[in-house]
Amino acid sequence: MGAARLLRAVFWGLLLPLINAEEGILHALKSENPQLTKDYCIYYNPNWTSLPSALSNTTSTRLEFLTPKLLCSRSDATRETVKDKAIVVMRGNCTFLEKAELAQSLGAKILLIASESGLNTPHGNKTQNITIPIALVRNEDIIDLKQNLGKNVNMTLYAPPVPNFDYSMVVIFLIAVLCVAAGGYWSGIAELENLKVVPSGGSSDSKNEENVTLTPVAIVVFVAICCIMLVLMYYFYKWLVYVVIAVFCLASATSLFHCLSALVRKIPYGQCRFPCWNKCIEVRLLFLGVMCIATSVVWAVFRNENRWAWILQDLLGIAFCVNFIKTLKLPNFKSCVILLGLLLVYDVFFVFITPYLTKSGESIMVEVAAGPFENSEKNDGNLVEASAERSAPHEKLPVVIKVPRLVFSATMLCAMPFSLLGFGDIVVPGLLVAYCHRFDVQTSSSSVYFISCTIAYAAGMLITFMGLALMKMAQPALLYLVPCTLIVCTLLALYRKEMKKFWSGNNYQVMDPMDFTANEENSTRANEQHEGQ
Model pTM? Predict the structure, then answer.
């Protein structure tokens, strides 16, 4: 599911040390009021340009706006206009180095190239004659700069070092572990309630709700559908992204209602009902349902508002993950091994193997997780303007937990202002945690499997972060989470000599609730007799 699709999101969002020094900051300040400033992302080639690491070590330069000119000929600018200034021109028609050669010959100090087709690191064989800094900036940022600061602007370029740690990672880690623990705990509690219900008239639907059990065959089909969907997203992103958004809105609103209604039903007040379609509906649950739908709709409308929409997305996403873990049941450890094993292979294949199969040389996972993008092509070693082969709307897949970054860096301006974690990294191992808690309920093992598997998941997350930081390359999160959780559960079952029951699930899905109650009573009597002896 989302675990593999959002690999790039994890890579960019959680591990700032992996970003190289090709990203920098354009610091602009209004000439008449130096206190009014704005920062923008730039891309530069460190082999061409050396930028200071701190703003205090820079000297501001007057910025001259030459856009929409391209500076591909001397007729585009005069020496009087650009001398001793930083100039910004449009990208296209000629190479970066050709523009830089003209700018330097006219006396410019800095060359900014405004791009409408995305940012890339400038490449090519720069001659020793070109000494001025060259940087690529978004054209939309130049427009924003003129609108906010006017045309009388001074600017400087610098590349601050990447922070070694972003505390938003701690928040992401806590959210992930709490979701897995809450979903697994809820699944076990629901199982316990079902087993303690004595059937009256052969109906216990109110307790079973809409839980779904995955058989081994269903698991194989499920993983195959994941593969097909990922490939379809790769080729038809600009249409299917809206399908994913619509499904997320529906599923998350439903999940939020299930999570909150479980808490509301524990409150002994406000239980007034009214008749509706031959049934009695609690008024408080009706208002709760309206609130959940409204939350989902508000997020859908304002989903691209970075200042606060992430709060709603996280709220809906947490509810989705917890409800998914509670609702989808794996009947035994064998099914857990099959599901986690297949998704591990799925993760590794689409991350490490598909780069050899795509024209861009990037994995299908990375392309899908990155969302909208534009392609650029090389011409004699220099990047020039190119039309996108597959244009996409500025939409992102909403299957992530988002937390704003808590440190300032160029990466925050250039890549993503959020740390991200895919839902799949939560729900896939969470299904195993939920099974462990249900098995604890069946065997009265004092939640030892549940607690151990939750701790193993937390350790797997930490190892994932460490692995990415040490190896400095994108890797599938399940590559660490799956072994950690499966190995711990296996060793624990072997130690307790319960591997056979743990593997087959102790037949909990067909166990008679009366047998469960009788087993509890027999166990209590046996303990009392043992204490008496």
Answer: 0.76
